[in-house]
């Protein structure tokens, strides 16, 4: 089946959109529930393909997993009966690497297919492995099968200094250390909002994780954890995508269920480009209102680890800047090959040149619709933003990537005035 989004752009977005639970927190917290040994109930999970894949992967290990309407999932890990996580489903999803920390922590053993996921350049997991080895795990790589085997009779707390700041490695080692014997100190860690969310979840299960959100995390290992109920934070990247789309269509959109402090780097850049961003509290939710009336001014930025500008919003922000007045210079510091969306934006008339990690975006007067293809999740979001800005029809293909991370994307955009339809064609 070839599915695509058909967008007729140049419609001003207006109204209210509510943000879903954070994908990057969900994909870590679902495997982390294995550590409880007892049932956990997760709330505010986004209805996205990555969450469904993890549900199936956990069921494949023998866990009981029930999903109910409204983003609730009950996970009972007590029936897990295999440590073999080598299915295609595991290898096709990058975040399945969190099974390494969760299964090592809970069972001292896992066989794991090496992670796939979005194609945004080399994404090694050497820091995850370094951390697990420091905790005492033995790790073997079977390159012929693209599988790693990890085994530990007993995990023991350790001091670990990460060579690069990695979200995945920080969370993964935190998971294993939560059940290790003694104290683990992690230095040079990632501070992203979902690192803090995972730490809070671990603490709700009885773990002792201190310092998440700073450069040093200290974990006092526990022999046992217990079940709990936990509600996932709102998605920082989905929030940013709607903020950018609002400005890109010279719109006026209230974005509800957000944590404004997570959005400061994006708000600052949008304001620098001429948009108004107002924070508010309606008594129930925090919200951000983004209003834009004029052509944006060019702005330059570099992607950085949190609290800097997130790499996951570099691509949608670039789409926005394609029609800005002047030239924007965008430096991608996290994933050197994260420019696969550029050739698709050029098909819409954008003027972008690339030199290594730097993109120069020369603002054009207008974009015009074309057939374009998503190459990864956030590239897909960028192409949606560009389609909303383009005259005529834009068709965004390869939308399986977008389904991985955006809940109800088309209906959410339609509700704020976009002309966007999902078309599912039989081949
Ligand atoms: C996570 C996010 C992803 C986001 C990225 C950066 C999830 C599920 N995904 O991905 O959306 O774009 O953070 O914010 O949360 N690196 C190493 N060795 C390692 C691990 C990473 O060299 O062992 C490098 C990577 O190549 C990259 C940088 O560190 O250059 C950051 O990667 P990392 O933070 O680990 O990204 P992910 O956890 O894969």
CATH superfamily of the largest domain: Enolpyruvate transferase domain
The assigned structural class equals alpha/beta
Task: Let me know the number of strands.
Answer: 26
Name the CATH architecture of the largest domain.
Answer: Alpha-beta prism
Unreliable spans: none
CATH fold descriptor of the largest domain: UDP-n-acetylglucosamine1-carboxyvinyl-transferase, Chain
The CATH class label of the largest domain is Alpha Beta
Beta-strand content = 25-35%
Count of individual domains: 2
Widest sheet: strand order? 23-25-1-26
Give the overall shape.
Answer: globular
Distinct small molecules: uridine-diphosphate-N-acetylglucosamine
**Residue share in helices?**
25-40%
Write a structural description.
The chain has 427 residues and is an alpha/beta fold. It folds into 2 domains: 209 residues, Enolpyruvate transferase domain (UDP-n-acetylglucosamine1-carboxyvinyl-transferase, Chain, Alpha-beta prism), CATH 3.65.10; 209 residues, Enolpyruvate transferase domain (UDP-n-acetylglucosamine1-carboxyvinyl-transferase, Chain), CATH 3.65.10. Helix content is 30%, strand content 27%. The chain has 14 helices and 26 strands. A 4-stranded mixed sheet has the order 23-25-1-26. The chain has a 4-stranded mixed sheet with strand order 2-15-17-16. The protein has a 4-stranded mixed sheet with strand order 4-5-3-14, with helices on one face. A hairpin with a 3-residue loop joins strand 4 and strand 5. Helix 6 runs parallel beside helix 7. The longest helix has 13 residues. The protein is globular, with a radius of gyration of 21 Å. Bound molecules: uridine-diphosphate-N-acetylglucosamine. Uridine-diphosphate-N-acetylglucosamine (UD1) binds next to helix 1, helix 5 and helix 6. Uridine-diphosphate-N-acetylglucosamine binds next to helix 1, helix 5 and helix 6.
């Amino acid at each position: 089946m070839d599915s695509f989004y058909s967008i007729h752009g140049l419609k001003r977005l207006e109204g209210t959109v509510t943000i879903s639970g954070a994908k990057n927190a969900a994909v870590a917290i679902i495997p982390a529930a294995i550590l409880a040994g007892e049932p956990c109930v997760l709330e505010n999970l986004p209805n996205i393909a990555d969450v469904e894949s993890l549900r199936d992967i956990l069921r494949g290990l023998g866990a009981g997993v029930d999903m109910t309407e409204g983003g609730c999932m009950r996970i009972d890990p007590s029936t897990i009966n295999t440590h073999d996580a080598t299915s295609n489903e595991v290898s096709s999803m990058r975040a399945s690497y969190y099974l390494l920390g969760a299964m090592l922590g809970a069972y001292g053993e896992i066989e794991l297919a090496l992670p796939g996921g979005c194609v945004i350049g080399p994404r090694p997991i050497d820091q995850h492995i370094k951390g697990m080895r420091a905790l005492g795990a033995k790790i073997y790589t079977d390159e012929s099968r693209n599988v790693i085997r990890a085994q530990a009779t007993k995990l023991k707390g350790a001091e670990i200094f990460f060579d690069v700041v990695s979200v995945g490695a920080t969370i993964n080692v935190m998971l294993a250390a939560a059940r290790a014997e003694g104290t683990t100190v992690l230095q040079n860690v990632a501070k992203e909002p979902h690192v803090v969310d995972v730490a809070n979840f671990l603490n709700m299960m009885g773990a002792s994780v201190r310092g998440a959100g700073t450069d040093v995390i200290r974990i006092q290992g526990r022999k046992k954890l217990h079940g709990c109920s936990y509600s996932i934070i709102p998605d920082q990247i989905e929030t940013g995508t709607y903020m950018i789309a609002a400005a890109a269509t010279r719109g006026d959109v209230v974005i509800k269920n957000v944590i404004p402090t997570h959005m400061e780097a994006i708000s600052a850049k949008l304001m620098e480009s001429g948009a108004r961003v107002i924070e508010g509290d309606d008594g129930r939710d925090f919200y951000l209102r983004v209003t834009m009336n004029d052509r944006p001014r060019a702005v330059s930025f570099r992607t950085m680890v949190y609290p800097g500008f997130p790499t996951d919003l570099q691509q949608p922000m670039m789409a926005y800047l394609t029609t800005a007045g002047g030239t924007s210079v965008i430096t991608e510091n996290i994933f050197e090959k994260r420019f696969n969306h550029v050739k698709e934006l050029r098909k819409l008339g954008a003027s972008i040149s690339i030199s290594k990690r730097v993109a120069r975006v020369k603002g054009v007067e207008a974009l015009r619709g074309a057939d374009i293809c998503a190459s990864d999740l956030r590239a897909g979001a960028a192409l949606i933003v560009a389609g909303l800005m383009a005259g005529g029809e834009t068709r965004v293909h390869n939308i399986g990537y977008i389904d991985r991370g955006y809940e109800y994307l088309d209906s959410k955009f339609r509700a704020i005035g976009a002309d966007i339809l999902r078309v599912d064609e039989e081949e």
